Amino acid sequence: MSLEPPPYLRPNLAIAERVSDLLGRMTLGEKLDQLHQCGVGDTNPNNLAQRLDQFQPTYGSYIVGGPWRTLLETRNVLQQRAVEESRLGIPALFGADVIHGYRTIAPIPLAQACSWNPELVRRLCAMAGAEARAHGIDWTFAPMVDHCVDARWGRIAETFGESPHASSVFAVASIQGYQENPAAPIAACLKHYVGYGASEGGRDYVSTDISWQKLWEMHLPPFEAGVRAGAYTVMSAFNDLSGIPTSAHPYTLTEILRQRWHFAGPVVSDWASVAQLIHQGFAAHGAEAAQKALNAGVDIDMADGLFREHIKQLIERGLVSLQRVDEATGRVLWLKFKLGLFERPYTKANALTAPSTPPPENLRLTEEAAARSLVLLKNNGALPLAANVKRIALLGPVADRGGPLLGSWAQQGDPAETETLAAALRSRLGSDVTLIVAPGCGIDDYDPSGIEQAQEATHAADLIIVCLGEDQHMNGENASRSTLRPAGRQTQVLDVALATNKPVILVLVAGRPLEIDAVEHQLAAVVAAWCGGSRGAAAIADALLGRLNPSGRLAVTWPRTAGQIPLYHNMRPKARLADEGNYRDSLTTPLYEFGHGLSYTTFQMGPIQLSATTLSPRERLIAEVAVTNTGPRDGIETVLWFIRDVAAGITRPLKELKHFEQALIGAGQTLAFRFVIEPKRDLTFPDDSGRPQLEPGEFILFAGGERVSFHLTA
Ligand code: GLC
Fold it and tell me: Of 53, 309, 368, 640, which sees the most CB atoms within 10 A?
């Protein structure tokens, strides 16, 4: 009788060897349980969770929710049952949607992208991962790296904006933050694979009609970057991709993900997206749904239980192979070995478990992030607030509420503890300044009773700040809107302020660009504060008072109206030039361009200098610009480098972001920004099967308002 533990319990052996040994010991039923993910607690308002007593010790993973104080205990109870009551003692995996923070809430990902600071994003994910890990979460269903150019879709809030390059950079930073935190690594999950952000009409859960060319150019790059950065898991999506739902799509799930990118980790379905194949008319019943999803490449079935219910019979009918079940089970076991769950199945309470409020150092980090994510869209000089402004009216339903700042997917963030803009201003304004706060209306209702109070509040004011936006449930999943206009009577409150002919500063707290085109010309200043998180209000107040110098830049095009959608910077050229083909009833340009953002200082960019004007595919081209801070105070500047391929075998976008760099430039100082162009990385485009194409010819390089041409030889 060997005293040595079986190979799968020996941490000194290679993971592949441990997986193989354990697979050989498992029954089919035990394998199928590993492919089952069960909901615990209130995980997501759009999905119903099962009750604790339905769980089996052999379930492979759980998606957990509910109050953070009980989560760790719940997790360890379930884990003890898995380890001690199951025959082979296989620990369970515990996943949750830690999208932008856990106990301390960071700005939403769309806001983080406007910081143009990947290191900051990495730090935010490391912070969130450590907080989540302390409460027993091994796996976060993030980063979401969908490509979206339709602000009607509530989930644009969860994206890193419209640039495939920027989304790729932030995807990698997120994965590094979650998975490479030595103190508390948690598995990342690239989602929603793939194309979900192209949901028709901006509605949710609907079909997407995407050409293979656009899929390869716009939607796949962040997933490929994330896979190559070592993401442990991928989540399939809800959307029907041009006739085949992505949770049962062999081309994306197997040919691309496995055969082209060699991704080794498990693919988890989205919540009941296997069962939803029936709603989509892609499966006649649960058995067919399970068969198609598993055979296409989904390994873990989230929440609907169809794999557990049908795969055994499907094997007996020869419709699913035992080899495929072993492959899927092996990936789940690989993840558990990778996370060290066999050696450390339980989560011990630590310093992050105890505090009743978010840790101060985490609040400081999220405040820095909110400050860097805030975008000053317009300023006629009204900001920063002048010392002679002594009476301020603060209007709008978001001005004195914490929830909107947290945004959707706010996990364990508590609106009641979240400082409001009114409170942040009160604590900063001198005793000689009067702040009159009047919401004027609700966020999403038509109750007129507050309008009169708002009018009264403006009478004595020197200046009016109007804070509009969305409540937490108004962005994120299942939060599509047919218009981008602020909801309810919010625009009426803004009109009340504008009717005074006093300076009006608009602050927007939302998960998407909002429609303000009709009144924008009347506004003294516009600040896009997004859902800035636990310390979002502090960042707004510091920006309004000039204690920080805004540096955010839009990572998404800001349309004038929803009628312009889709409208994005990397569109293809139209057939006609100048104004031909544009709208006849409105301007066709966006209200604010991708990359737009103002500062309290000014920057002057010199011409682009090139190391050569011609290069071969094997050479590199060095581009440089000098940027001078010509204004009165230090400021952070971001240089976005775009490239256009002037003529190619297929039409190419007007401009594609290929590189970005950020630096603090002291008042009066000049700094050089550099972009080293590598043809294979920066001048290629994928064909409709994803094969990179590099063609000689003219290219245009853009930075700021500067542009320069160069030629690639054969
Ligand atoms: C949801 C979302 C997905 C999330 C999952 C678990 O429906 O689409 O983003 O991770 O279900 O809550």
Answer: 640
Give the pLDDT score at 48. 62
**Alpha carbon distance 337, 387 (integer Å):** 60
C-alpha neighbours within 13 Å on the C-beta side of residue 470 = 29
Quote the pLDDT of residue 70. 85
- Does residue 601 have its Cβ closer than 6 Å to ligand 1? no
Q: What tokens were used for 88?
A: 């082979």
The DSSP letter of residue 627 is E
- CA-wise closest residue to 450 among 435, 458, 438: 438
Cβ-count burial of 54 within 10 angstroms (0-12 exposed, 13-18 middle, 19+ buried)? Answer: exposed
Low-confidence ranges of the chain (pLDDT < 70): 1-2, 48-53
pLDDT of residue 150: 98
pLDDT at 604: 98
Amino acid symbol at 637: E
Hey, what amino acid is at 302?
A: M
**Contact call for residues 481 and 504 (beta carbons, < 8 A):** no
Any idea of the CA torsion for 518, 597, 154, 196, to the nearest 10 degrees? 130
Å from CA of 238 to ligand 1 middle: 9
Which of 280, 278, 315, 279 minimizes the C-alpha distance to 294? 315
**How would you write 74-102 as a 3-class SS string?**
HHHHHHHHHHHHCCCCCCCEEEECCCCEC
Give the CA dihedral 40, 43, 44, 45, nearest 10 degrees.
70
User: Rounded to the nearest whole angstrom, what is the distance from the C-alpha of residue 273 to the centroid of ligand 1?
Assistant: 10
Answer yes or no: 517 catalytic: no
Q: Cα separation of 246 and 312, whole Å?
A: 23
Give the residue, by CA position, lying nearest to ligand 1 atom 8: 270
Q: Which of 94, 128, 220, 118 is nearest to 173 (CA)?
A: 118
Give the integer Cα–Cα distance in Å for 366 and 373.
Answer: 10
Sign of CA dihedral 572, 576, 580, 584: negative
pLDDT of amino acid 450: 97
Supply the DSSP symbol for 255: I
Closest residue by Cα to atom 1, ligand 1, is 271
Rounded CA separation 283/273 (Å): 12
43 lines ligand 1 (CB under 6 A): yes
Cβ(551)–Cβ(638) under 8 Å? yes
Q: Is 317 exposed, middle or buried (0-12, 13-18, 19+ CB in 10 A)?
A: exposed
End-to-end, the C-alpha distance of the chain in Å comes to 69
Query: Of 150, 270, 301, 400, which is the active-site residue?
Result: 270
- How many residues are there in the chain? 714
Residue 183 is predicted with a pLDDT of: 73
Answer whether 149's CB lies under 8 Å from 157's CB.
no
Give the pairing type, strands 139-140 and 240-241: unpaired
Which atom of ligand 1 lies nearest, measured to the CA of 144?
A: 9
C-alpha span between 278 and 287 (Å, rounded): 10
Q: What is the identity of the amino acid at 665?
A: I
Closest CA to 457 of 424, 485, 422: 422
DSSP conformational letter for 160: -
Contact 143, 109 (CB under 8 A): yes
204 lines ligand 1 (CB under 6 A): no
Distances from the Cα of 3 to the Cαs of 7, 14, 17, 447, 697, in angstroms? 12, 20, 19, 74, 70
The Å distance, Cα 473 to ligand 1 centre, comes to 14
> Exposure pattern of 196-207 as b/e (b: 16+ CB <10 Å)?
bbbbeebbbbbb
